Amino acid sequence: MKKNNLPQLISIVLPCYNPVDGWCQTLENNITELNGRLSSNRIQYIISNDGSTRLDKSKVCVLTESDNVIFLDNMVNEGKGSAIRKGTMRADGDIIIYTDIDFPFGTDPIVEMVKIFNENPECWFVYGNRTSEYFKKLPLKRQLISKGLHLLNRIFLSGHITDTQAGIKGLRREILPEVQRTKTNTFVFEIELIRKLIKKKVDIQSVNVFANPSIIFSDFSLKVLFREAVSLSRIFMMSWAWNDAL
After folding, report:
1. pLDDT, tens digit, 9 for 90 and up, residues 42-93
2. How do residues 3-37 score in pLDDT, each as one tens digit?
């Protein structure tokens, strides 16, 4: 879809919380690469800071000297779901894609998502599907958590989708209201979103994603695990309440 005969605009939303050293150069490298690979498009980059306590604002100023880079400075750490909602709210693109600020899967899945949307007008949402090789690289605790989430997804999402937690998704602007209507602030907000889309019978596709060799996987603390469990329980309760109301 084009407006005023301009090239299609794509918004890349980048949730950000205390990125590792060198994040700015990594981001600049990926922006340069993606701009080259999608040269027929206009690309808007939105950094959605989620209350980072260590973020060099001077580097942010250098990034935002470019007209296509926007920095949203959310002062309070509310969670990844909140950062993505705020970032997508600022997005102007016909296609909106979000991924982590360190581009853990590189630019390949972004290019593939854009291709899917351009070639299949019936597709409205694309998610990243992590391969078995990806899971082998995870710390043991995260492997176990991921397997548990896969099982819950098979039950909760009627077997349509098992991998909801790869940090890259793409959507058409028309379903942006569904993103904004999610209530979950933490990592598992995507389960709530995908649940909504399945109920609306939205056409959903996937792309396989592979971790960059340089990515260092962090482990989850007990505090984070408890918070995610609470959020997941809330999603289940909201869904059951919604079903009961039908």
Report:
1. 999 999 999 998 888 888 888 899 889 999 999 999 999 999 999 999 999 9
2. 556 789 999 999 999 998 889 999 999 999 999 99
The domain ranges of the chain are 9-245
Tokens describing residue 39: 């040269």
Within 71-205, residue ranges assigned H as helices are 80-90, 108-119, 132-136, 140-156, 176-180, 189-199
Measure the CA–CA gap between 98 and 169, rounded to whole angstroms.
Answer: 6
- Look up the CATH number of domain 9-245: 3.90.550.10
What is the reported pTM?
A: 0.85
Q: Which tokens in the block code for residue 11?
A: 């918004």
| One-letter amino acid for residue 65 of the chain | E
Angle between helices 140-156 and 222-245 (to 10 degrees): 0
